[in-house]
Amino acid sequence: MKIGVIGASGYAGGELLRLLSKHPVFEVTVITAHSHAGDQILSVHPQLQSYGQRRFQSNEEVNFIDLDLVFLALPHGESAAIVAKIPSSVKVVDLGADFRLSDKSAWEKYYGGNHAGAWIYGLPELSPGHKNAIAQETRVANPGCYATSISLGIAPAIGFVDATDIVVVAASGTTGAGRNAKINLIASEVMGSLTSYKFGGIHQHTPEIEQAITTLSKDKAKISFTPILAPMPRGILSTITAKLTSDVSLEKLHEKFKAYYSEHPFVHVLPIGEMPKTSSVIGTNIVLMQIAIDENTNRLVVSVAIDNLGKGAAGQAIQNANIIAGIDETTGLMHDGIGA
What we know:
By secondary structure, the protein is an alpha/beta fold. It is about 25% helix and about 20% strand. Helix 1 packs across helix 10 (about 310-325) and helix 6 (about 145-155) runs parallel beside helix 8.
């Protein structure tokens, strides 16, 4: 299949190119970057030696009818304009937020600008049958990185917890903030320091998480979410708590979590007592999670680790592309992490 990557100069775009370089079915024939059009790919992503002397094209040069599938790795709010130029026969996976939210008012509150509409939400493990629903579509909204870790961390517990009282503190590496130069992201500012940001429930992934969890719950989900900038390039560690509404043992809940993801090769519920760590998932599409019960407050506690550029972006996008292309979802993604 002939593949286009639109907006490939960012961190997620670069990770897409890295993963696609070894994909046995997808052939990357178009690679664009608006501000880097004409530049060698290696000048931006020197790690991508397999792309040799290839150069970025401009978006205007692309003849989308020649492609089978397109990945959009553009800043939020820019995908809709490109989608208008893509024939309906071409499959699309959008890594941006443009088509994630069904609620127009939520889009306007957290992102601003015109609401482009909603596509199927590309989190295959979210609920039983959701992967099959994705397979029936041709256009998929790839989830946000925080939203992926948090939604997967709480989904198996719906029915055992109060979905209107979910509290999350999650730390992310600096690549989650994009590649634009910002003083607060330079090494001198970040190394040896932790800081919260978008403090007080204003992070743009909040309505996305609430939307995903509400589809599983009889109540409208409510999330109190505090993100933290961590002094590392990539990885997310989310800690999720929710009030238990039934008398259930840790062992029973642990078995429920394992059963919930038993048919999903990328989600691993660790043995009780073993904790997820971000270094174990870097470079992969893997999710690691662990649960506990805080008996003092009668709250479920879930720890989830993902790579924000893997399962949180490029890896998940390829997983979704595999699904809508009718091939095994693990194609090109079954490899071990980089480690320390």
